[in-house]
Specification:
about 230 residues, about 0% strand, mainly alpha, 2 domains
Amino acid sequence: MPLSWKTNRPLSKVRSHLPVDELANLAHPILESLSFPPHANATLLPEQASLPPHDTITNAYKVLKGRTRLLLLEEWRRLAPPPPYYTFPLSLTPHPFMGLGKFIAGRIHQMRAQKSYLAAHPAWSSLDIPKHCPRCGEEEETFSHGILRCQSPSFHREPLLQSLTSVGPDSPLWTDKDLLLALAAFIRATATNYPPDMFPSLPPSLASMVFPSSPISPPAGLFFSSPLHAI
């Protein structure tokens, strides 16, 4: 919104109620107690109006942005609450693991949402399938079992995931670049949460399942601050 509305009134008749009026009313809760409002009544401004200090404008914007994000998350929880079994926090920004490539990021998304090919995450069309792990048979094949406890892929787990003890919401896994790369390497090496009929045996180039666009040299940056390096 402009700081000054010193413009001539249009000659033709205009609508007095526009969608922006409703948006302004909805934005009222996040504008309260700001040190500097985004706009002001033109009649209250001096003839030679000057911009407020840069720090004032910057701080007001940060406060406004923060309140807007909180309101968006509150409306998300109210209008489309996640199911009780989804314990990960809602986020308005991409998850760091989405920089691992579409295929591997999809495997992780599915397991976090408990809508995967793991036996303990049955779909509506496969409710009669046993939930025990088809690899070891020791317990239900949940996300944590498949990544942390199943003895079948322990050969790959020992060199890759020794320091990983949890895949829950509070685990450092979700913010640590090296742990995410290790998880991606473990998933592609063990074909965890791969579609059962995807291929009869593992593909010759497993790195292509993590970085489909460049199996040899993974793309730089993505959502990380430094280039990724394949394990």
